[in-house]
Amino acid sequence: MSDFTERARTHADGPEVVDESGTQQAAPNPLDDELRKIDPTDWRTAVAAAKQDGYCFFDWLGAVDQIGRANTFEVVLRLVDRGEAGPRAIRLRTSVPREDPRLDSIADIFAGAGWHERESAELFAITFTGGDPRRLLLADDFVGAPLRKDAVLAARSGVDWPGAKEPGGAPSRRRMVPPGVPEPEVWGDRDPSAAEPDPAEVAESAVGGRVRRRRTGSGGRGPVLRRARDPWGGSPGVGDE
User: Where are the stretches annotated Disordered (predicted)?
Assistant: First the structure.
């Protein structure tokens, strides 16, 4: 077998892990994970039960902003069982409301979760009750939650974004906004008398691309936003992951 073929097989099978007996095993394929949907009030109980069932290796914990699909954040935890039967993994998923996102900390069950909880607390403004409240990545005076989809990347609004102006040329006649900056009628250069946009409208408008005209919806429902397509080929859908 050639060295190239051996490397290809190793890559396809996944990285190897070592169990408690010192035996090397292929890491479980994330596509094979068992998925468990957990009520937020049962979060700690479900995590403790999974550990009791043999899922004793903490892999990661993260959050996803579901705005555009639901007014919630989804918190996901991945645990691995590296027992004699071979590696297996589960993902526990729960949802907390955007208005006051709170979830019990599991750092006393899995010490490694503490760092991940602090990261999600800073980037999404989720409170992990009973966890470590100290800052981890951002400065103490930083305001906002940068990974929320309605967080505006204001610094980008003051610079020419690729495609808006070619080197040595005049600015495009069609106004463009970079990803992370909503269209002018939603944020920034907008009608002072207009109602404040809701977070879903800000997130939907901040996909980047050419600014398009807004039309008034039927039935007096106010303006309807026409989505600008991401010039780098991404989907314009707000809830796309």
Answer: 1-36, 159-241
Q: What share of the chain is helix, strand, coil (3-state, %, to 5)?
A: 20, 25, 55
Report which secondary-structure segment, H or E, holds 202.
helix 199-205
Is the separation of the CB atoms in 94 and 103 below 8 Å?
A: yes
Q: Of the candidates 106, 89, 105, which has an alpha carbon nearest to the alpha carbon of residue 34?
A: 89
Domains by residue range for the chain, with CATH: 27-129 (3.30.460.80), 149-241 (no CATH)
* Mean pLDDT per 10-residue interval, the chain, length 241 residues: 40 47 64 93 98 96 92 96 85 96 98 97 97 93 89 70 63 65 67 70 67 50 40 38 39
Q: Give DSSP secondary structure letters for 52-119.
A: HTT--EEEEEEEEE-TTT-SEEEEEEEEEE-STT--EEEEEEEEEESSS-EEE--TTT-TTHHHHHHH
Alpha-carbon distance of 175 to 197, in angstroms, equals 21
